[in-house]
C-alpha cells in the first residue's frame, strides 16, 4: 500500500520519479493567468485566519459545501469564521475523487507541514495551529508567493482599472516577482447585459472623453490599451459562453452600438455581430502590441437566478455549456489571420468534449518561425483534476505538439493555490514516464526531461516574451 500523499504521490515508476525529481520539481512558476488581487500583494497584510486565507472567494469549496448540505450562513453568510472552517473540515472527507481533496491536503502539507487527513475530528486543532502560523512573516501574501518559487503573475484587470497597485509593485525593488496586468474587456463586449451602458459611462469617466458613438468608444478603448501596455501588460483575456461570429459591416456595428446606448433591445444576431466586430478590432490591437489573446470558452454562468440576486455573480453557480464552437472559432481566427492581424492566442474550453476540436484547431493557424502560435490551454475549471489534465495532455499530444505546450496556471484567487502546479507536474511526469515504461518512448531521459522543463516553465516565458523581465 502506498502512503497517502507521500513524496512519490502520483509517481508510479522509476521514469516518473526521475522526470519529476530531476527535471520538474524545482522549476520556477509563471502563473500567467490568475485572479489574485494586486492590492493584497502590495499591502502584504497577514491573513486574519484560515477562513480569510483559504475559503474567501473560493467557489470551488463553496460548491462542495453546498452539495454536502452545509447551510449558506456557514459558506458566504455571517457565521463566525471558525464555524465556516469547521464546516469545510467536515466536508473535506466527502470530496474523495474531487481535486479539492488533493489540493486541500497538498496546501496543508506544503505551507503548514500538516500531514494528516483533515476532517471533523481534527478541524479545531488545525484551525488553531494554522492560525498561529499565519501571523508569521513567512505567511504574508508576498512571502507565500516567493516561497512557492513564483517568478511572474498575470492578474485579471478591467480596462477601467487605474492599475495603481501594479504601479506600486513595479516601483518596489524589494519584491522580485513580476505582477503583470491582463486586459479583460468583458464589460465592453457583453453588450446584451443591463450593465453595458454603466460600463461605457465608467470608461468615459476614466478617459475623460464623451462616448456617444462607436468611434468614440473605440478611441477610448485604444487609450486604455495603450495605458495597459505602458504598465507592462502582455495579454488580454475574454470570457465567452459561445464564440461569436456573424459577418458584419462597420456601418452595421455603428448602428447596433447607437441602438444599445439608446437602451433599445438587440436581437441575438445583432449581439453576435457587435461581438464579432469588436473581437476583430481588439485582435488587431493585441497583435500590433505583441500581446497574447486568451479565450475562455463555454461556461454557463450564474444559472441560479435566486442565488445570483442574493449573492451576486461568480459565487459558485456556473456550469459547463454544450454550445457548438468549431465553426465560429475557425471563422473568427481566420478573419484575423487573413488580415495579418492574428495575435498569439490561447484557447481554453471548459467542456472536455471540445478537446479534440481545439487541439486540432491550433494547427490551422501557424506562423513561420513561431512555435505554437495558437495554444490549446490547460485543463480548466471543471477539468483541472487528474483525469481532466491527463485527457488534455494526451488529446493535445495526439493531434498536436505537446512539447510546445505552455503548461499550468492556477486561475485562482488564493495565495495558497500554488501546489496546483506541483499537481500538474506530477501528472505530466507520470504520463510521459508511463509512455517510457510501456516502450512507447525510448528511455532518453535528458530529452524528455528537457521537454518537461519546457512545459513547466520555459515555453510560457518564451510565449509571453518575458525573458527580459523574469529571473531565470
Describe this entry's structure for a reader.
The protein has 472 residues and is α/β, with parallel strands linked by helices. Among the domains are: 46-139, uronate isomerase, domain 2, chain A, CATH 1.10.2020; 235-395, TIM Barrel, CATH 3.20.20.140. Helices cover 48% and strands 8% of the residues. The chain contains 20 helices and ten strands. The chain has helices at 14-24, 38-43, 50-55, 59-67, 81-91, 99-112, 123-134, 141-147, 164-170, 186-189, 196-207, 214-230, 250-261, 268-289, 305-311, 326-337, 355-361, 386-399, 419-437, 445-463; strands at residues 29-31, 150-154, 178-180, 182-183, 235-240, 292-297, 299-300, 319-320, 344-349, 374-376. Strands 4-5-6-9-10 form a five-stranded parallel sheet, covered by helices on one side. Strands 1-2-3 form a three-stranded parallel sheet. Strands 7-8 form a two-stranded antiparallel ribbon. Helix 17 links the parallel strand 9 and strand 10 (374-376). Helix 1 (14-24) packs across helix 20 and helix 11 (196-207) packs across helix 12 (214-230). The chain is globular, with a radius of gyration of 23 Å. 43% of the residues are buried. The model has no long low-confidence stretch (mean pLDDT 96). Pathway: Carbohydrate metabolism; pentose and glucuronate interconversion. It comes from Halalkalibacterium halodurans (Bacillus halodurans). Belongs to the metallo-dependent hydrolases superfamily. Uronate isomerase family. Keywords: Isomerase.
